Amino acid sequence: MRLKQPRIAPVTDAELDADQKEILAPMGDRVLNIFRTLVRAPKAARGFLAWGNYVLSRRNDLPAREREIVILRIGYLCRSGYEWTQHHAIGLRSGLSAEEIERIKAGADAPGWSPADRALLQASDELHHDQFITDATWAALSEHFSEKQRMDVVFTAGQYTQVSMILNSFGVQLDEGQTLDPDLKGF
Q1: Which element (helix H / strand E) includes 41?
Q2: Which of 84, 143, 177, 184 is most solvent-facing, going by the fewest CB within 10 Å?
Q3: How many CB atoms are closer than 10 A to CB 46?
């Protein structure tokens, strides 16, 4: 975690106004700190949630496992402890093994990746470092993913770069009961 306390505190239940309650209502009883923070800007939260819901939905043509490879790699590259922690659990539920999640930290050059997984990791690295996928990586992606899926790689990496920027800059802290990965302490 980059900050030990929030710069923008999550809204408590007692502070919620009618608009904020409406935005958070679909989330049920357990509202994560990211959403309690974002709802301090309700209009922005509505737009953010609409796009984020696309990226995490079946409308995103990347299979959930492959989507989580991109999300976790971007979260790790951005040194977003909150993002990594949330999506570690989601990645496990989406078909990634604990060993694969750990290996995501090492990137595309780590041994054991399939060519498709390696292409996703390489694309994530390129988008993070240069905001562009090279022709070679695009060709590698093309061997395994449809045009729409390749678009969704870019959409997913972009969304989670933004999410990581929000989490890191606003100082969103882990939710109750979560533990920070030791490799992301001190960032």
Answers
A1: none
A2: 177
A3: 14
**Please, are residues 1 and 172 in contact by the beta-carbon 8 Å criterion?**
no
Distance CA 87, CA 72 (A): 6
Whole-number Å distance between alpha carbons of 141 and 42: 37
Q: Hey, what long-range contacts does 137-140 have (CB within 8 A, 24 or more apart)?
A: 140/115
Cβ burial of 83 (10 Å; 0-12, 13-18, 19+) is buried
Question: In tens digits, what is the pLDDT along the chain, a chain of 187 residues?
Answer: 889 999 999 999 999 999 999 999 999 999 999 999 999 999 999 999 999 999 999 999 999 999 999 999 999 999 999 999 999 999 999 999 999 999 999 999 999 999 999 999 999 999 999 999 999 999 999 999 999 999 999 999 999 999 999 999 999 999 999 999 999 987 6
* Separation CA 34–CA 163 (nearest Å): 9
Q: What is the torsion angle, in degrees rounded to the nearest 10, for the CA atoms of residue 155, residue 131, residue 136 and residue 152?
A: 0
The CATH code of the domain at 64-170 is 1.20.1290.10
Residue 71: its H or E element: helix 64-77
The domains of the chain are located at 13-55, 64-170
